[in-house]
Design brief:
The complex is a heterodimer of chains A (about 190) and B (about 260). Chain A is mostly helical and about 190 residues long. Chain A folds into two domains: about 80 residues, RNA polymerase sigma factor, region 2, helix turn helix motif (Rna Polymerase Sigma Factor, Chain: A, Orthogonal Bundle), CATH 1.10.1740.10; about 70 residues, Winged helix-like DNA-binding domain superfamily/Winged helix DNA-binding domain (Arc Repressor Mutant, subunit A, Orthogonal Bundle), CATH 1.10.10.10. Helices cover about 60% and strands about 0% of the residues of chain A. In chain B, α1 crosses α2 and α1 crosses α3. The N and C termini of chain B lie far apart (about 55 Å). Classes of the chains: A mainly alpha (about 190), B alpha+beta (about 260).
Chain lengths: ~190, ~260
């Protein structure tokens, strides 16, 4: 289970501040994509549901901070990503810390094996199946997984920058490195 | 431009979002760098893999219901709802009579309807909506040989509905030959797949060529479904449903 901040627990609806606006209905249009990211971050259906529930609860808590007309989608995904990292950090309170992706950005693109050239890599890539892709994604760091998956969901680089709290130039280089790393992993699965 | 910078720009180049100066510098680099050209090809293949093979699951309905019950904004006050309902009733009734003849609705969770719209949206938002560019239906159809385990029967190439090309996708649990048309500003996707074993509508009244089908709507898209022989067809677009019916008739009959 995720260990999330107790301050994000639900308010009883009757006790909500009446002058604070409700969560825009448009927020629910992003539910499928939020669940997909949560599922691929946590690797578990139940934890993914918990994470999405918590994301909406946190969004309700913080809804007064959302500025209408700004990017609701990026705001929601940033909440989800931060919640996951916070919960994950507490759950992983061990001496050995897994990389989040922003601690050593250069390492994300490191390729351990010899790069394949020509048609061989393409042929290997073409032979992978959905399970291979899911497994390879799980081996990426949290931010690398996030950036690849949200790019796939159609996020612009400006939106990704908002979600990951970095600039667009950093998004470009992280996305490039994350995809290179994913290809490297897929080559291994395709053997 | 060095290799590192070049590779950072490759995806933007493929998506057409690279500024002119960077694009020119990148093209110069690529012309003399086989490694980066290979990188570009491999990354394009990765995009195709992610688009086609990574399942796109929906959030569980129980989660959706729970969240909406808890956090969705309240609907309008009862008094206003009643007044608005009365005002809309007359127009709604008239529309309903018309719609009754045009649409045979089924529950929104109908898996074929949901899948057709999801797949259509995936095509719309795909980096590479077609894998083979159209030079006409006679160039696109042979491309599917060896890629799907059936021969898609599509006798109509489109007139106003210009065929953009084709690709292979998954429709529920099976491969589908995908044809992408463009009618004015609207993209139209035709999925052709093996019909056996799917939960087809029990009543099909819409004439589609010399067979019968159904038309339904979901999330702003219209979906025409019909069967012919062993094959099933799903035509999806946000274009006018009457235009879709016309196109479906031509696709089904070749006329």
């Amino acid at each position: 289970m995720l260990h999330l901040d107790a301050s994000s627990s639900y308010d009883a609806p009757a006790l909500r501040e009446p002058l604070v606006p409700p969560l825009p209905r448009a927020a629910f249009e992003h539910l499928d994509a939020l669940f997909r990211l949560a599922r691929r971050l946590t690797g578990d259906d139940d934890e993914a549901e918990d994470l999405v529930q918590e994301t909406f609860a946190r969004a309700m808590d913080k809804r007064a901070q959302f500025v209408p007309g700004t990017n609701l989608r990026a705001w929601l995904f940033r909440i989800l990503r931060n919640l996951y990292i916070d919960g994950w950090r507490r759950a992983k309170a061990s001496p050995v810390r897994e990389r989040l992706g922003d601690e050593d950005p250069a390492a994300e693109g490191m390729v351990s094996g010899e790069p394949l050239r020509g048609d061989e890599e393409l042929e290997r890539l073409r032979s992978v199946v959905a399970d291979d892709i899911e497994a390879a994604l799980r081996e990426l760091s949290v931010d690398a997984r996030t950036i690849v998956l949200l790019d796939l969901e159609g996020f612009t680089q400006e939106e990704l920058a908002e979600v990951l709290a970095c600039n667009v130039g950093t998004v470009k280089s992280r996305l490039s490195r994350a995809r290179a790393k994913l290809r490297e992993l897929l080559r291994e699965y395709a053997r | 431009m060095d290799h590192r910078e070049a590779r950072t720009h490759l995806i933007d180049r493929r998506r057409g979002t690279l500024d002119a100066a960077s694009r020119a510098a990148l093209e110069t680099h690529l012309a003399g760098c086989e490694a980066c050209r290979h990188e570009d090809a491999a990354d394009a293949e990765l995009s195709r893999l992610l688009d086609e093979r990574l399942p796109r699951r929906r959030a569980p309905d129980s989660l959706r219901r729970s969240l909406e019950a808890r956090w969705a904004p309240p609907t309008a006050p009862r008094g206003w709802r009643v007044a608005r309902g009365v005002a809309a009733m007359a127009a709604g009734a008239a529309l309903a009579v018309v719609a009754l003849f045009l649409f045979r609705s089924r529950p929104p969770e109908d898996p074929m309807l949901t899948e057709a719209v999801n797949d259509h949206l995936r095509v719309l938002y795909s980096e590479h909506p077609v894998e083979v560019q159209s030079g006409g239906i006679h160039q696109v159809k042979p491309w599917f040989e060896g890629r799907v385990d059936f021969a898609p029967v599509v006798p109509f190439a489109g007139d106003e509905d210009f065929l953009q090309g084709g690709s292979v996708a998954y429709f529920l649990d099976r491969k589908a030959a995908t044809f992408v048309f463009k009618r004015r500003l609207h993209m139209i996707t035709l999925f052709v797949f093996r019909a056996e074993g799917l939960l087809w509508p029990t009543v099909a009244t819409l004439p589609v060529g010399d067979v019968r089908g159904t038309v339904e709507s979901s999330r702003g898209s219209h979906v025409l479904l019909w069967r012919r022989g062993d094959l099933g067809y799903a035509l999806v677009s946000d274009a006018d449903p009457m235009d879709l019916e016309t196109l479906a008739g031509k696709v089904a009959s070749g006329r």
